[in-house]
Write a structure and sequence with these properties.
Length: 80
């Protein structure tokens, strides 16, 4: 969370300096049905992602939640 917030802050700052930029945070998470997560971990993860989505919307940063490296790469290509 701390790293994601720091990166989002940097993206928002860059967008303030150049409004024509597209600022996006691609955030990797396990699948919601991942068997390695306990219910408590899953709830906390969903809560954290929700907080990040709200902060991203507030800062005009696009937020993309992905589950695989391939999905992250595809999202970056879409944004380019």
């Amino acid at each position: 969370m701390e790293d994601a917030r720091a990166k989002m802050w940097k993206l928002a700052l860059a967008k303030e300096r150049n409004p024509s930029l597209t600022a996006a945070l691609v955030f990797g998470t396990p699948n919601d049905d991942d068997i390695t997560l306990s219910d408590k971990q899953r709830d906390r993860l969903n809560s954290n992602v929700g907080e990040l989505q709200q902060e991203a919307a507030h800062r005009s940063v696009e937020f993309s939640k992905v589950h695989t490296v391939g999905a992250a790469a595809a999202r970056v290509v879409e944004l380019a």
